[in-house]
């Protein structure tokens, strides 16, 4: 398997990878714009736009869009993140051209009819309501908000209700005009792909788009803070957040391995101590979310209201211990877990297509997988201990709590315990 890339004169990049032995393909258009590219008054519009892309074009109704893909046994979908919006389809190799034509149609020719906007507005308001009724969803939005207050990176992807209620066609069209230029688009395909044919079609579908320069998103700064919402729930939901390296930072591999051995599986320190030895929770985990300019280390668990204090204190105690007694065996296990997770995850065309699109957005090229493997293997125990100590000594941290959380320690007390 080999990755091929091509850049059109207007700045749009095409990337593809033929995967022998497969009959299916994933093809999509990744847009280098998401919630981080929104002004405060626009918060939620990138996600609203993603919904509206499927609601009709100049030549297709919403039903036509669904039927043309499903009539060939395919699947079409989209998602919005803080830094990107993706529109993609999974089809048989023979139908890659059809799928790309449909994707180009919804990206370039959506009509944003007033009636459809009102219908989708109701759908998105229901989605927001559903999120607010799901504690382990909403608590991460709260953690993001207190970590990056009054910044685009701290705002929810779905946006606030008041924004969603007032968006109109001009708002959607304006965001497209500003952020959906060809230099912000990556066409990516993996699976049964004829790359030369993909390039020819992308040129025909997107080559006439005029080059433009989208404004860069603001660079966020981790501030930290606390949000706790007391509510009569069965579980007390608990999250901690810390600044972490960006995806471009060489330290990101150390940070990811640290999060793996801290809370990445059943053998991790938090799982063993908090669940297996003390029985304080059903699940607990740590993860790194590395963005283009910032990253965040997140720890999450849920427990009973009368155990929330012990769980919080044991969690930071385990973080302190890691700064001094990480072992070679733990490092080796975390390295293997990380490599296996990455390589096994990339056996699906959809994962391959996404990886390539994100790599183009980040570095302008697709690094060979061997580079990532080598960087994982280069992490050592001394570097891990140093990173763990750096996390403990950080001047800022954040915490979000939801449920019967009156007995939880204050953020300042946890922070002092971690640094002490």
Structure notes:
The protein has 420 residues and is α+β, with helices and mostly antiparallel strands. The protein is built from 16 helices and eleven strands. A six-stranded mixed beta sheet has the order 1-2-6-3-5-4, with helices on both faces. Strands 7-11-8-10-9 form a five-stranded mixed beta sheet, with helices on both faces. The termini are far apart. The model has no long low-confidence stretch (mean pLDDT 96).
Write a concise keyword list for the protein shown above.
16 helices, six-stranded mixed β-sheet, 420 residues, 46% helix
Secondary structure elements and their pairing?
Layout: E1 3-7, E2 13-18, E3 24-31, H1 45-52, H2 62-70, E4 75-80, E5 85-92, H3 96-108, H4 114-132, H5 135-147, H6 161-166, H7 169-179, E6 185-191, H8 195-206, E7 225-230, E8 236-244, H9 252-263, H10 269-277, E9 284-290, E10 295-303, H11 308-325, H12 328-345, H13 349-363, H14 369-377, H15 381-393, E11 398-403, H16 411-419
Parallel strand pairs: 2-6, 7-11
Antiparallel strand pairs: 1-2, 3-5, 3-6, 4-5, 8-10, 8-11, 9-10
